[in-house]
Design brief:
heterodimer, A: about 110 residues, mainly beta, six-stranded mixed β-sheet, four-stranded antiparallel β-sheet, about 0% helix, B: about 120 residues
Chain lengths: ~110, ~120
Amino acid sequence: GDSVTQMEGPVTLSEEAFLTINCTYTATGYPSLFWYVQYPGEGLQLLLKATKADDKGSNKGFEATYRKETTSFHLEKGSVQVSDSAVYFCARKSNQAGTALIFGKGTTLSVSS
Amino acid sequence: GAVVSQHPSWVICKSGTSVKIECRSLDFQATTMFWYRQFPKQSLMLMATSNEGSKATYEQGVEKDKFLINHASLTLSTLTVTSAHPEDSSFYICSATISGKNTEAFFGQGTRLTVV
């Protein structure tokens, strides 16, 4: 079935380091792709999204590009901050209205000063 | 932006009792809402899809008689965990999409349920 696979963590970085969290998907057609972030004790917040091939989603210094040739949607940030410490979830959604998101397992990021 | 409010944010209950969790879309109508369950350090697993005015669609392995879902209006869905047991302790999260629009899902803050 359709799925989302993201790199396992935890990822531990120093402040200002470069971040990459890999995410690949399997799906029929071209789903919409998302990155959500979950801060400790909170619900999920949408970080960025891309709805078609070659789209680049960006927000708060994070970027991800929808690559249909590699079925990937890797999350990147050039310089992480301590406040970026959280769990990051890659997700896909079919283009049929009313369907749920399918999530990857989540990657815990810990940034130290 | 669209806001989804989930209540309560945490609850402790005794084994054998029932707990109701509410999910409200505050500034939009949501024909469809989703209920997820998240175990510690794991991903969100879809439990059921809640459709306004009709029966919920449960994912395989989810007991519909244990997790009762009611979606009586376009802004409210409820999840009732009946005869709760310690193994039901988890983080429950709801999400909603705007009626008629294929946009991203908006998530509630989640409910931490602890059954003692």
